[in-house]
Amino acid sequence: MADSGIPATTAVLLAAGAGTRLGLGPKALLPFKGRTLVEVLADVLLDGGCREVVVVLGAAADAVRAGTDLGRHTVVENADWAGGMGSSFRLGLSRARDGDHVLMALVDQPGLTPETVARLLRAHRPGRVTAAAYQDEAGTLRRGHPLLLDSALRGGAAESATGDAGARHFLQAHPGLIDLVDCTNPSRGEPSGGEDIDTPDQLHLLG
């Protein structure tokens, strides 16, 4: 990579869910910045310094493919998406480039920026998990996404991903491996980057 201080990293964008609670179909297809949410976020991950992006589709995958231009990225389909995030997490890890660290991101985080991605990549230390964290109203730093898994930890993280749990079980078992990086966006009126879209009352995050 051009910046030798940034580790070789594949991003995995988890975009397989049906968006049931939101009630508008897959979140991947939500309109955002004149495009769709999945297109914008996949490009954000690439622009932030990841050398490639694996987009994991599931629900209405044919419709997402037809309604988007993801030609810059690797697109894979999880046939078992309805069983929970764990299978999409494992599939994404398996398709990341061998030897790369893996940055796990969620498709429902419209506040994610290339600057946040680059900050995580620069902060990563060998053998560690580097997690974006965001300040709540009380100023407490709370872990969120994206999550950067060291290449040495990929196997263990994949083994622990079951049901609707991606990295959760792995992180609970290895809390001492986690480095939090404050990614709060202090700009007034803008999302911090940590908010996700689960229900209709959060659609304002799309701007």
Structure write-up:
This protein has 207 residues and is α/β, with parallel strands linked by helices. It has a single domain, classed as Spore Coat Polysaccharide Biosynthesis Protein SpsA, Chain A (Alpha-Beta Complex). 25% of the residues lie in helices and 23% in strands. It contains 6 helices and 9 strands; from the N terminus they run βββαβαβαβαββααβ. The strands form 2 sheets. Strands 5-4-1-6-8-7-9 form a 7-stranded mixed sheet, sandwiched between helices. Strands 2-3 form a two-stranded antiparallel sheet. α3 runs antiparallel to α5. The termini are far apart. The model has no long low-confidence stretch (mean pLDDT 91).
Q: If helices are DSSP runs of H or I spanning 4 or more residues, what is the number of helices? A: 6
Mean pLDDT across every amino acid position: 91
Could you give the order of the helices and strands?
EEEHEHEHEHEEHHE
Instruction: State the major sheet.
Output: 7 strands, mixed
Give me the secondary-structure category. Answer: alpha/beta
Distance N to C terminus: 33 Å
CATH topology: Spore Coat Polysaccharide Biosynthesis Protein SpsA, Chain A
The CATH superfamily bears the name Spore Coat Polysaccharide Biosynthesis Protein SpsA, Chain A
CATH architecture: Alpha-Beta Complex
Domains, number: 1
Strand tally is: 9
In helices, the fraction of residues equals 10-25%
